[in-house]
Amino acid sequence: MSSLSDQRLAALRERMSATGTDLVAIGPSSHMMYLAGLDPHGDERPVMLLVSRSHAGFLMPALNVDSSRQKTHLPFFPWRDDDGPDAALATLLEASGLPQSPSVVIDETMRADFALLLLDALPGASRRFTDDTVGFLRARKEEDEYRRLKASAVLNDTAAMAGFDALTPGITELEIAAVIRDVYKQAGATPVFTSVCFGGNGAFPHHHTGETQLKAGDAVLIDTGGRLDGYPSDMTRVGFFGTPTAEFEKVHAIVNKAVEAALAAAKPGVLAKSIDKAARDVIADAGYGDFFTHRTGHGLGIDIHEPPYLTATSETVLDEGMVFSIEPGIYLPGQFGLRLEEIVILRKDGAEILSDLPRSAVVR
Predict the structure, then answer these.
(1) Residues 162, 226 contacting (CB under 8 angstroms)
(2) CB atoms within 10 A of CB 275
(3) 3-state class of 79 per DSSP?
(4) pTM (two decimals)
(5) Of 187, 172, 221, 205, whose CA–CA distance to 359 is shortest?
(6) Residue pLDDT tens, the chain, 364 long
(7) Is the peptide bond before 308 cis (omega within 30 degrees of 0)?
(8) Element (H, E) at 299
(9) CA distances from 130 to 107, 135, 249 (A)
(10) 276 within 8 A of 296, measured Cβ to Cβ
(11) DSSP state of 172
């Protein structure tokens, strides 16, 4: 129950020493799941994991202690509704052995009232978010994380193709989404999101799947992901129902070229913004720059969206073991949208694609 958590806490303390951090405070979040394997019930009752150089423990509502104990060996500092959390938090902070005016890292996803409760108890503390501590560790995937992400990606290949294979005249986007979700469920995975876009709906990068019916001459975009064994997938592929138009084939070739340029630029030690530039330059040079309206990629791990983010301004230095998407797109209002998305893990010699599915358009 504790070995992975112990390893990650030890790695966190190394980062705390390297960054001069005295305390890391984590709320109920994917950060807590990563560090302690615990995802406690979250409501307005303060719960947090506090990690110092010499101690780790949970501030925990008493009514959640028994269920949470099944997941962690770390000590609990419980509090009851009729007492409030202040005394338990004070005891936990005393056990943490903090210096005067400590340097505190706050989980950026923590409720504001939880964070202020902690900071009010630490007058004079400096504070920042988790980028160079927990975030730093999570961005560099362990081998077991890679295996889970790879398995999730391969299942996603099957789910996406099931969607394309189900295309028939008059079928709705929602009906295709249901076919895709069934693949996840039958494999013991959980559907996380499925965006099915027919025709002009694909020009909306975050289209909400609806009742639009498929007709001949429609481009089809499927962006989907599920969660298998705790880790998600995320992939976008495109197709055409009927004979692809010349414009569709032209745009597909441009976007695929942009993906290839970004893949070639992805190396340890380069800035995240250089990956975005590699993809964006291809699309701009082809005359479609105004129609590529979002960043090139995002990290993926326990969360579907997590650091690093591949934007035009990101100064993040990419490192071996990072997992992120490469997903340039061109969106032509009233016609179609075309995005090709790969999830990659960065190896010492470049990017390894997790999907086994070709990026060629699926014609039905």
Answers:
(1) no
(2) 29
(3) strand
(4) 0.95
(5) 221
(6) 458 999 999 999 999 999 999 999 999 999 999 999 998 888 999 999 999 999 999 999 999 999 999 899 999 999 999 999 999 999 999 999 999 999 999 999 999 999 999 999 999 999 999 999 999 999 999 999 999 999 999 999 999 999 999 999 999 999 999 999 999 999 999 999 999 999 999 999 999 999 999 999 999 999 999 999 999 999 999 999 999 999 999 999 999 999 999 999 999 999 999 999 999 999 999 999 999 999 999 999 999 999 999 999 999 999 999 999 999 999 999 999 999 999 999 999 999 999 999 999 999 9
(7) yes
(8) strand 297-299
(9) 6, 5, 43
(10) yes
(11) B
Extract the tokens encoding 184. 């996840």
Chain position carrying tokens 């104990």:
69
What are the structure tokens assigned to 169, written together? Answer: 């005249």
Pairing of strands 231-232, 235-241: unpaired
Distance from C-alpha of 176 to C-alpha of 180, rounded to nearest angstrom: 6
